[in-house]
Design brief:
CATH topology of the largest domain: Rossmann fold
CATH architecture of the largest domain: 3-Layer(aba) Sandwich
CATH superfamily of the largest domain: P-loop containing nucleotide triphosphate hydrolases
Strand order of the largest sheet: 2-1-4-5-6-7
Strand content: 25-35%
CATH class of the largest domain: Alpha Beta
Shape: globular
Structural class: alpha/beta
Number of domains: 2
Number of helices: 11
Radius of gyration: 21 Å
Number of strands: 15
Bound molecules: adenosine-5'-triphosphate, magnesium ion
Length: about 350
């Protein structure tokens, strides 16, 4: 899933119509003061697809889509997934009795190469897409199919919400395993089977899937460990044992301890390393690689010192430079934002929040 364009009206602080154009924003930053609406932009992407956002804590939070003074919220997301273009729309209304309900939800598969600017200039009949979901109830399955990830995993691997960065790092082994199963899709079987044959003896069918996931977790943790070593200036390796994550602390005689003992900044580094490794290692193995076409990180950079920040920025630049995924960050840290080619500046006045694109 790679966002192309987002339109919002009445969605929480975006009271007035606002468009965020992600065209060629392969590496972008959302910047702006505290409470200006940066996370809300990411919320709107998530909401268009899944009808909820992490901070609402469940679908019953739907009323939060509306600013208290608004009676209607509209969100439309144009995105690309595995080369196809889609438009996801949701409209939420407050009725006369004050109840907030989804009035409209839909997903359309647009004609190949659909030109996003036509949303401004007007659509002709041949621009109309195929309706793949026309009701809120149909959305869930259709979005899952188009994006390749259910909501929980989308918010662990693609749009990483503020304050929940460490969820994958701290997840229970079973939860983590489920995320891997979904991310890997089926393609991994072929890849890993080849390796299994090379190593021989691992192909007893009943153990195969478990072995396969262990292999994927090995790859993931190896990749994350390499990134973490770099981010921590050689201090930490990441390892796993029976599905639990540990760090090996080279500043403490190479002793192993639980990842929960890491400091705030270190937890961020380890989580970032895992998120990047997920995006990096698994995309090549997965048949659902489309699901990893972007990674957007909401905050946490403020916990890093200048040297670490520099390493993080370089890591993100490298990832973005590969060109196979969009990399986005939300940040207050100018030293990071200044290095990012496309910036969306979010501002809020008494009436509404706005987004202005600067840079490329
Ligand atoms: N459901 C809602 N209805 C009305 N206002 C909301 C709603 N949800 C959030 N807000 C407000 O919208 C504003 C923007 O919130 P948002 O979380 O997007 O800010 P932010 O730019 O990410 O800030 P920070 O840098 O502090 O994370 C905040 O003032 C917040 O209190
Ligand atoms: Mg925020």
């Amino acid at each position: 899933m790679r966002p192309m364009r987002l339109d919002m009206a009445g969605f929480t602080v975006f009271r007035e119509e606002t468009t965020v154009d992600f065209t060629d924003a392969d590496f972008f930053a959302l910047v702006g003061p505290t409470g200006s609406g940066k996370s809300t932009v990411l919320d709107a992407i998530c909401f268009a697809l899944y009808g909820t956002v992490p901070r609402w804590g469940g679908t019953r939070g739907l009323a939060n889509a509306l600013a208290p003074s608004a009676n209607e919220a509209r969100v439309r997301l144009v995105f690309e997934s595995a080369g196809a273009r889609y438009v996801a729309t949701r409209v939420v209304r407050r009725d006369g009795r004050g109840t907030v309900k989804t009035a409209n939800a839909g997903l359309q598969l647009m004609p190949a190469g659909f030109d996003v600017t036509k949303l401004d200039t007007g659509l002709s009949p041949e621009d109309l897409g195929e309706v793949v979901a026309g009701t809120p109830a149909e959305m869930e399955r259709a979005v899952l199919e188009a994006v390749g990830l259910p909501y929980e995993q989308f918010t662990s691997c693609v749009l990483l919400p503020q304050g929940q960065f460490a969820d994958f790092l701290h997840a229970k082994p079973a939860t983590r395993q489920q995320i891997l199963v979904n991310l890997l899709g089926l393609g991994v079987y072929e890849e890993v089977q080849k390796r299994a044959v090379e190593r021989a003896g691992h192909l007893r069918a009943n153990n195969f899937e478990r072995w396969l996931l262990a292999e994927a977790l090995d790859l993931l943790v190896d990749g994350a460990s390499r990134i973490l070593r770099e981010l921590s200036n050689g201090q930490y390796d990441l390892v796993h044992d029976k599905g639990e994550f540990f760090v090996v602390d080279h500043h403490d005689a190479g002793l192993r301890r639980a990842v929960r003992t890491l400091s705030g900044g270190e937890t961020f580094q380890a989580s970032l390393a895992l998120a990047l490794a997920l995006s990096e290692q698994l995309a090549g193995m997965s048949t659902t690689a489309a699901s990893l076409e972007s990674i957007v990180l909401d905050e946490g950079f403020g916990t890093l010192d200048a040297a670490t920040l520099d390493t993080v920025a370089a890591t993100l630049e490298n990832l973005a430079a590969r060109g196979d995924r969009m990399v986005g960050v939300v940040t207050h840290v100018p030293a990071l934002a200044d290095r990012i080619p496309v910036r969306f500046e979010v501002r809020k006045d008494a009436r509404t929040a706005r987004v202005e694109r600067t840079g490329l």
